[in-house]
Write a structure and sequence with these properties.
- The protein is an alpha/beta fold.
- Helix content is 40%, strand content 19%.
- Mean pLDDT is 90; it is low at 69-77 and 242-256.
- Bound molecules: 2'-monophosphoadenosine-5'-diphosphate.
- 2'-monophosphoadenosine-5'-diphosphate (ATR) binds at residues 378-383, 401-403, 406, 421, 435-438, 448.
Length: 523
């Protein structure tokens, strides 16, 4: 299992790193000795919001046991007194962190205090007792003695990390893993440093409880750490599946329950995990939703089947490519030519499209679609879903696009008229819908049409939800139009996915609230 340490300089950067790490990690370690002015409660709740599955380790490393890869400058400023550190670890237990990591060297009193607080809190948080040697790897006999001292406290996990001065030092820490396993004690053991790479790569195969990896090379919390991508590559190679294309972490995370996943590339900034996990929790469903960055859609679908995942969301750029790997595709998705939702019916994978439903549900909140004219800007996948839904509800779509070819194809598929974007001033309709990415963050000052254009419409919709109010919508509001923000469509397409997966009505208002709060924070 992969643990990504968060070593950011500031709380804000740490929150950002957490969002990026959650889709890829099994564990996140909060290095509170490095995160300047770290707000533990906020950091923990952000991890929980992003993933119901990722386990949290809180640690505040002693100065003489804190590795210094790329963070040397910060070691001094972030050092906390022993009292402060103990208070912080206690706070972590109060906040329900899954693990707190304390060094053996902190002594009996501190360790026992943490142990009894864990017990008092019902055992939700567990203890890791650790030993780090930044200079060398002691002889095996010495390491076994250190291990025994740690194990005496009966912690959930013993962690013994040393520095490799020779390649042979790797064998010592790997040996310690076998020693611990024979005693049924969970252990994390490896060597740091340039010569310690072998143990980092092999320790997971020997039974080390987890291994540390970083998102990027510069985020290393200890010398010699590999990236998540590299750790996945080792996994593939050592399992005999030496391929060029990988499905990062799907194979590594087999031991965690996974119920729903997002497949896409990139997925790092996706807000779907936040929205779906909040909804599942509110619905009283003890399941989780995580994001996976996919490079090989066929492999990812095999992973879905193999791990018996209940359902998946599919996003850019896989919505079309995924179709050929499914056992069945529902009629709406076939007509639209794209799948954004997969349901696993006892091993048979069925594809659906809820994008069009998200749009239609949003429109129907304020207008009757039948017999109205909808001018759709753009001619890509989203425009296709919009045109399909509008026709299904008895409305009339008109396609307007920057270039001719896609607009022509789309209009001939649905038997509607089309215009070039430069001609939009000639058209009139009831509702204008933007499906292009013009105006999306960071290009928030752009709009696909001039402000006068909106005056020709009573209703204006944008499918973009970041920013919450695009320039198109702000201009439309000035012209007195009724506006539909893209967030509503995003929430409804997600809610319809949850309905397909669970058969229950999801809490749409809550889903909208968590996303708009997050976007407001970002803005
Ligand atoms: P999606 O699947 O999200 O709809 P897409 O298939 O890439 O995305 O389609 C994007 C649409 O937005 C296209 O119709 C594109 O116009 P072209 O067909 O001329 O490429 C349109 N689009 C993208 N950027 C645009 C811009 N700067 N101005 C106007 N239209 C734009």
């Amino acid at each position: 299992m992969i643990c990504i340490p968060i070593t950011s300089r500031t709380n804000k950067e740490a929150l950002h790193a957490i969002e990026r790490s959650c889709p890829l990690a099994d564990f996140i370690e909060l290095r509170m000795d490095l995160i300047g002015r770290g707000n533990l409660a906020k950091l923990i709740s952000t991890i929980r919001d992003n993933s119901g599955a990722v386990k949290i380790i809180v640690t505040c490393r002693k100065k003489d046991e804190a590795a210094r890869a790329g963070v040397a400058a910060r070691i001094k400023s972030a050092v906390k007194s022993k009292e402060e550190k103990l208070a912080l670890l206690k706070e972590a237990i109060e906040l329900g962190a899954d693990f707190v990591d304390i060094e053996l060297a902190e002594g009996n009193k501190a360790i026992n205090e943490l142990k009894s607080l864990c017990a008092k809190k019902g055992g939700k948080s567990k203890i890791i007792i650790s030993y780090h040697n930044l200079k060398e790897t002691p002889a095996l006999i010495e390491l076994k003695e250190i291990f025994n001292q740690c194990a005496k406290y009966k912690p959930a996990i013993v962690k013994v990390v040393t520095t490799a001065r020779t390649v042979e030092d790797n064998l010592i820490t790997l040996n310690l893993i076998s020693h611990a396993r024979k005693r049924s004690q969970k252990i994390i053991s490896l060597c740091m440093g340039g010569k310690g790479g072998i143990s980092r790569a092999i320790a997971p195969f020997m039974g080390s409880y987890l291994s540390f990896a970083t998102l990027e090379r510069e985020g290393q919390s200890a010398p010699g750490q590999y990236t998540v991508y590299e750790m996945n590559q080792f996994q593939e190679w050592f399992n005999g599946r030496r391929t060029e294309t990988l499905v990062p972490t799907l194979s590594l995370r087999k031991s965690l329950p996974k119920n729903y996943v997002l497949l896409g590339n990139p997925v790092g900034h996706s807000l779907s995990p936040l929205m779906h996990n909040a909804a599942l929790k509110k619905m009283g469903i003890d399941e989780n939703y995580s994001a996976f960055c996919v490079q090989d859609i066929g492999g990812a679908i095999d992973g879905l089947r193999g791990m018996n995942i209940r359902g998946a969301s599919v996003t850019i750029p896989l919505k079309v490519a995924v179709m050929e790997y499914l056992d069945e595709v529902d009629e709406d998705a076939l007509e639209i030519g794209a799948v954004n939702t997969i349901v696993n019916n006892n091993g048979r994978l069925a594809g659906y499209n809820t994008d069009w439903l998200g749009l239609i549900i949003t429109l129907k909140k304020a207008l009757t679609i039948k017999n109205k004219t909808f001018v759709i800007v753009g001619a890509g996948g989203t425009a296709r879903a919009a045109a399909y839904g509008i026709i299904k509800e008895g409305g009339h779509p008109v396609i307007v696009n920057r270039t001719m070819e896609k607009a022509k194809n789309l209009s001939s598929k649905f038997g509607c008229s089309f215009y070039l974007l430069s001609e939009i001033g000639r058209i009139k309709g009831d509702c204008l819908i933007n499906t292009t990415s013009v105006g999306m963050y960071p290009d928030v000052d752009k709009s696909p049409v001039k402000i006068e254009t909106q005056a020709r419409y009573k209703y204006v919709m944008d499918v973009i939800y970041n920013p919450l109010k695009t320039k198109l919508l702000a201009d439309a509001e000035k012209q007195g139009c009724h506006i539909f923000p893209g967030l509503d469509m995003f929430v409804h397409q997600g809610a319809e996915q949850l309905r397909l997966w669970t058969g229950k009505e999801p809490p749409r208002a809550l889903m909208k609230k968590v996303i708009s709060e997050r976007l407001t924070q970002i803005e």
